[in-house]
Amino acid sequence: LSKDNRVVVYMGDDKRDACVYKFISKNKYNQKDGKKNSKLLEEGTLYVANFGEGRWVALTIEAVQKAAKGNAELLKKFQTQADVVVNCHEAAILLGGTPTDRPEDLEISPFDGSMFIAHTNNSNHGNFHGHITRFFEKDNDHGSMEFQFAIFAAGGIQSGFSAPDNLLFDEDGNLWTVTDISSGSVNTKIWEPFGNNGLFVIPTEGKNEGEAFQFASAPVQAELTGPCFTPDEKALFLSIQHPGEETEDLANPTSKWPHRSGDKMPRPAVVAITGFK
Q1: Can you tell me the distance from the alpha carbon of 74 to that of 67, in angstroms, rounded to the nearest whole number?
Q2: How far apart are CA 64 and CA 92, in angstroms?
């Protein structure tokens, strides 16, 4: 929620040179309305982040048409606000949105309100290992139009992880991230030191702030996704996507995870990791 009680939603766009967005509802949240508050998502303003100026830019049809003035092709494409939403990336770039490195997941810290973005990577600009960005909204207000940001953690051999993808916070303020090195790259060339994809925990404060510690390793050619703690944080659910994805000969798969008796093919699954105290 913003300080004036409007709903704020942050969004990424998992592709190279994509932008970071936030939506702010027109009307205000009322706890007594319960599920009726979902209607707040139906009307509001969509913004794109301009990193160079540290400000959020409103993606309105009026602003887009003004920026496209004199360009008949663009003016034909952008005639209504719906056109801005459908062609959002093009509109964002037109209005000064900053192209970034595959912003996959965005999570708000439940402790200080800062917002974290997992930028998976971008081979177009030599960012092969990705990074995690930390946003600080002005006056700690999610409804603010200005922000500062920092590179919280950078992928690479110095940190031990590459291609951060999904994010999760625990009750101690640690940031958890899973990685998404593509199956065609994992364990090869510059990605060889990282082994399979993994699950990492990164403290957000204290002497180990920004330092990654590996907690789990994925099966061969699999991606770990969607980490989620139970409310008491005694169990962690984790999705295992496409193990053995690079298999060319079905009679000889590169992985047979989860190695069930009589099963000759790898299978994606959801696992539960227990034992947390």
Answers
A1: 10
A2: 9
Return the bridge partners of 153, or none.
Answer: 132
Q: Quote the tokens at residue 246.
A: 């690079």
| pLDDT score of 200 | 98
Tokens 């300080």: give the residue.
3
DSSP state of 87: T
Nearest to 185 by CA among 237, 130, 259: 130
Report how far apart, in Å, the C-alpha atoms of 227 and of each of 107, 121, 154, 198 are.
12, 20, 20, 11
What is the reported pLDDT for 277?
83
Angstrom distance (rounded) from CA 101 to CA 149: 15
Spatial contact of 119 and 106, defined as CB atoms under 8 Å apart: no
Q: Long-range contacts of range 262-269, CB-CB < 8 Å, 24 or more positions apart?
A: 266/219, 266/222, 267/243, 268/222, 268/239, 268/240, 268/241, 268/242, 268/243, 269/239, 269/240
Return the percent helix, strand and coil in the chain, to nearest 5. Answer: 20, 35, 45
- Tens digit of each residue's pLDDT (9 = 90 or more) over 191-227: 999 999 999 999 999 999 999 999 999 999 999 999 9
- Taking the whole predicted model, whether its pTM rises above 0.90 is answered as yes
Amino acid at 125: H
Give me the half-sphere count of Cα atoms (radius 13 Å) on the Cβ side of residue 193. 10
Segments of the chain scoring below 50 in pLDDT: none
